[in-house]
Design brief:
This protein is mostly beta strands. It is built from 6 helices and 39 strands. Helix content is 9%, strand content 30%. The radius of gyration is 51 Å and the shape is flat. It starts with 10 loop residues before the first helix and ends in a 10-residue tail after the last helix. Its main location: other.
Length: 795
């Protein structure tokens, strides 16, 4: 779509350019290609004489859903007549999905979609666009509202909300008898294209049944189906969108059709015994009896199996009470392996009288046919115990392996898989319900659980009560993701009389990882401690290290505790390391090196009784209470009785939160003028004020001594009087009392002030080596500011 700006130079030119103006001020529908009026244009815009200039022109209203490109999807372009191309106007987008889904280039007005859109989740978005001044952020045009519609694609397959179906039809029904109607729904837009137009077909169930393509009605395709021959059929019905054309999506459902019985067979007597496939071993299969006119012991009989096609499957015994032959099951039955057995059984009198042998054999035989009836058995895993491995750093969704199970019955029902969550409480794994592929659902940690024992369920789709179980062992392979640390919390004691090179501690490390080649740790002192003058570390090359002293003469009064950073590196790929702090306590030891007392030396007062301590404590509390009372009274005296007006600023203190660069900032202020008390000033004397500033010491103006030569009890008073004199003779001072603040610390020691504020404001290197000559109290400053290359002591 092309947008043009509307310019109105003259009425004649307007008439000539009217077709072009129509194209530029109205939106072009991308689906029809016709010119149509924008839904948010001015209602009088068709009137040439009274036409208002409309600010917005866009050339896109539709966005294709499920866009899979790498770049943001271009939606359209907005442009305002106020925008002259000089960068003073920027475009702002608001409304549904603004900034989160739709973005606008504030310079060009191009709108893009940054996320994949789903029409089934939201079919359209209402947005508002506005042009604002880039400097003031004030709108230069009123908001313009437009709608971005999500155009449907065929991304949803038909589904059967009521499937799977169970239906029944009488046996011997005529051709075309209705069985059941199936209905499939499609979530795509039914008003756009053929994405939601579904046709039905039968995938499995020929030639017994058929389905009407448009209605989904299932009918019988053969007449006179006999229930005694087959009583159940499983159909698979497919629903395909796009009117069944190539490229359409499809979904299936199962329909189980059962033939109901009608009275179509006369009664008959047969010599057949039917047993269930699930019959347990040592269960009774059947009872048979040979009729004998005798009674008592003469009627006692023994039964045996003479012949049969199932050797070892059955046994027969005699019931002594009824003289029946009881056929027992010796091995499990499997309908899918063998569905019937034929047995030849003989019954013989137990007590034969030899006087009547001529009457014939005292035995008889009969044939028994045992039919195995099929029962629905649970699915069986091809591998009951599966073993899989997965790396510890596997990403979520990584496929680990696949389990497989099948239905042992003739129906061969589809199988769905699931995980027994009692064996995966934290839900580390998922299994695909259809394929049986097991994948990771959460990050794994071998150190927390190295082996996962999962129970996988295989469930028949047609009969969810039939559940098979399989075991899957998943071993998590180790990766180097844990840094080594100290094996224990070491408490290292160092005797004051320790000699240089003495081993004071042997350390070792542990690592939660378990590499195949075993652990190998490397020890070293961490960077700042590598060159310290107190201790050194020796790697023993056996996953241990020794801490040795580099000097003697440790004193706990000087430093009771040393903290030594130790770097431990493992041999993994990539290698991981950690810095662990070893605390070394200086102790007073006996001649055998046994620590007597460790840590800082405590100074305790001795010789005071409990009463004396309580008296001292009472005095301290009394003094604190008195000080608090005095401070409170003085504060009350200083509180003004009448609050001054806020506009009276003569004695107000104004605070500015302007922070400088610290002591190193010599560019913002001249600190020499602020702190150097001996700077010679030449103030301008006020002509209308006669200063009268008495002083305790009178000096000629030409020979005034510095503050360093004044007595200690006079230097502060002289400083205050001199500053008061400077303020009185200052012509720029206000004509009323004001608060003056000075940061005077006194003349100090002979070493003068060590503050950097006393130094010159220029960058110069000052030599502080003389601090080492001032005694032990300045040793720390000498170490900090001196130029010696000695390594500092760790603390």
């Amino acid at each position: 779509m092309i947008g043009e700006k509307c310019h109105y130079h003259s009425l004649a030119l307007l008439a000539l350019l009217f077709p072009l103006q129509e194209r530029s001020c109205w939106g072009l529908n991308p689906s029809s290609g016709d010119l149509e009026k924008s839904p948010h244009s001015d209602p009088d815009s068709w009137d040439v004489l009274h036409r208002n200039r409309r600010s917005w022109v866009w050339n896109q209203f539709f966005v294709l859903e499920e866009y899979t490109g790498n770049e943001p999807l271009y939606v359209g372009k907005l442009h305002s007549d106020v925008d002259k191309g000089d960068g003073k106007v920027k475009y702002v987008l608001s409304g549904e999905g603004a900034t989160s889904i739709f973005t606008i280039d504030e310079n060009t007005g191009d709108i893009h979609a940054t996320k994949r859109l789903d029409r089934e989740a939201q079919a359209y978005y209402t947005l508002q666009a506005q042009a604002v001044d880039r400097l003031t952020n004030l709108p230069v045009e009123p908001k313009s509202e437009f709608v971005v519609k999500v155009q449907d694609i065929n991304d949803n397959e038909p589904k059967f909300p009521d499937g799977p179906y169970l239906a029944g039809v009488p046996e011997m029904s005529p051709l075309g008898t209705m069985v059941v109607q199936v209905v499939a729904t499609d979530a795509d837009d039914p008003t756009y294209g053929n994405s939601a137009r579904v046709v039905y077909s039968i995938e499995h169930g020929h030639p017994y049944f058929s389905v009407e393509p448009k209605t989904g009605v299932i009918r019988t395709a053969l007449p006179n189906m006999d229930r005694e021959t087959r009583d159940q059929y499983v159909l698979v019905i497919q629903a395909k969108d796009m009117v069944g054309q190539m490229g359409g999506l499809s979904g299936t459902t199962s329909v189980t059709v059962t033939l109901t019985d009608v009275n179509d067979n006369p009664p008959r007597f047969n010599y057949q015994y039917t047993v269930l496939e699930s019959l347990l071993v040592q269960s009774v299969v059947a009872r048979i009896k040979a009729a004998d006119a005798d009674i008592g012991s003469n009627a006692e009989m023994d039964y045996r199996i003479m012949d049969g096609d199932g050797p070892g499957m059955f046994n027969i015994t005699t019931d002594e009470d009824t003289q029946e032959g009881v056929i027992m099951l010796l091995k499990p039955l499997d309908f899918e392996t063998k569905s019937s057995f034929s047995l030849r059984i003989e019954a013989t009198n137990r007590n034969i009288d030899s006087n009547f042998l001529s009457l014939g054999p005292f035995s008889d035989t009969t044939s028994v046919k045992v039919t195995v009836e099929d029962v629905n058995e649970p699915p069986v895993f091809s591998i009951p115990l599966s073993k899989m491995v997965v790396s510890e750093d596997a990403k979520v969704g990584t496929s680990i392996g696949r389990v497989s199970a099948h239905d042992p019955d003739n129906s061969n029902s589809p199988i769905r898989y699931s995980i027994d969550r009692n064996t995966d409480l934290e839900r580390f794994f998922n299994v695909d319900a259809l394929s049986g592929v097991i994948s990771t659902a959460k990050p794994l940690d071998r150190e927390a659980n190295s082996v996962h024992n999962l129970t996988i369920f295989a469930i028949e789709s047609h009969d969810p009560t039939q559940i098979g179980k399989g075991i899957t062992l998943i071993t998590v392979l180790d990766v180097n993701d844990n840094a080594p640390v100290f094996a224990i919390d070491y408490e290292t004691l160092l005797c004051e009389n320790a000699i240089p090179g003495q081993v004071i501690q042997t350390i070792s490390a542990v690592d939660k990882d378990e590499p195949l080649s075993g652990h190998r740790f490397y020890f070293a002192l961490a960077g700042p401690a590598a060159g310290n003058l107190n201790f050194t570390l020796r790697d023993n090359k056996d996953n241990t290290a020794s801490i040795l002293t580099k000097r003697g003469g440790f004193r706990r009064r000087e430093q009771p505790v040393y903290r030594l950073p130790v770097l431990i590196v493992d041999s993994g790929s990539p290698a991981l390391s950690s810095t662990n702090t070893l605390s070394v306590r200086v102790c007073d030891c006996d001649s055998d090196g046994v620590a007597l007392s460790c840590g800082a030396v405590a100074y305790t007062a001795t010789g005071l009784s409990t009463g004396a301590l309580l008296a001292i404590l009472g005095c301290i509390i009394t003094l604190l209470v008195m000080v608090l009372l005095i401070v409170t009274m003085r504060r009350r005296r200083k509180e003004p009785l009448i609050l001054e007006e806020e506009r009276d600023i003569r004695e107000n203190i104004v605070r500015y939160d302007d922070e400088g660069g610290g002591e190193e900032d010599t560019e913002a202020f001249d600190m020499v003028t602020l702190r150097n008390l001996n700077v010679i000033r030449d103030p301008n004397v006020r002509r209308d004020v006669t200063p009268d500033t008495p002083t305790f010491f009178h000096y000629p103006s030409a020979s005034r001594p510095s503050y360093k030569s004044l007595p200690d009890n006079v230097v502060f008073r002289e400083f205050i009087w001199e500053r008061l004199k400077d303020a009185d003779v200052d012509p720029s001072a206000p004509p009323y009392d004001s608060l003056q603040t000075y940061a005077f610390e006194g003349s100090g020691s002979v070493a003068e002030s060590l503050s950097s504020l006393e130094s010159l404001s220029t960058d110069s290197d000052q030599n502080y080596d003389y601090l080492s000559n001032w005694g032990p109290r300045f040793k720390k400053l000498a170490d900090l500011y001196g130029n010696s290359d000695s390594t500092t002591v760790l603390s």
